[in-house]
Design goal:
Oligomer: single chain
Number of strands: 5
Shape: elongated
Strand order of the largest sheet: 1-2-3
């Protein structure tokens, strides 16, 4: 076929039907040889944001690669292709959300540590002694705890209550701060409720008392 020649509607229909038959029979549209040619032709080509968006939309719901394990060689190629690439804040947020709930193996954590030049955990410049604060609550690094979060942190007030009781708290149990100061974790300022329902009941009673006093 000559370059820039236009196909008739009938010709295009035949090509489309042939591609559909190939996909049904082989699971992919193009032969291995054709895919290699396409790959070589696209090497070094930078796709526009609009083009990438179109590809992303076209792949929504595509489960052809679901559960597929990539070879070491393939993973190295992806890694090399992404080296030095700067991602937008939106992309970084998407990547972060996709990793939520995933537990990393010790091998993976070691690889991350090496990639960061060993600046991981206590070696990191951001290390704060295994203590951090979020939404007013204090969290302590405790990777051995049965109910630690994905970052291996546990709420300090729960740890203090566990130490006081001499047992692990159940997931449904709630530790309440009497003075409503979230980082005041003195044992005399803490109350334990068997679940969130009891905790809410207690707050409703407090509000009713306050309303009567007013």
């Amino acid at each position: 076929m000559k370059k820039n020649s236009k196909c008739s509607d009938e010709h295009r229909k035949k090509i489309s039907e042939a591609r559909i038959r190939r996909k049904e029979g082989l699971g992919y549209l193009n032969s291995l040889e054709t895919r290699k040619k396409i790959s070589l032709a696209l090497k070094g080509r930078k796709l526009s944001d609009k083009h990438r968006e179109k590809i992303g939309l076209a792949l929504i719901g595509n489960k052809s690669n679901s559960g597929k394990k990539l070879s070491k060689e393939h993973r190295e190629k992806i890694s090399n292709a992404l080296k030095g690439r700067k991602f937008s804040k939106e992309t970084l947020l998407k990547m972060s959300n996709s990793m939520k709930g995933k537990k990393l193996s010790e091998e993976t954590k070691e690889k991350i540590s090496k990639a960061c030049g060993g600046r991981y955990g206590s070696s990191s410049s951001h290390w704060k002694g295994g203590k951090t604060k979020n939404n007013g609550y204090i969290y302590l690094k405790n990777p051995e705890h049965l109910f630690c979060n994905n970052q291996r942190y546990v709420l300090e007030h729960r740890l203090i209550m566990e130490k006081f009781l001499g047992r692990l708290l159940k997931l449904e149990e709630v530790v309440h701060h009497k003075n409503n100061v979230r980082d005041d974790n003195r044992i005399e300022n803490l109350m334990l409720f068997e679940d969130d329902i009891e905790h809410r009941k207690y707050h409703r009673k407090l509000k009713q008392k306050e309303a009567i006093l007013i």
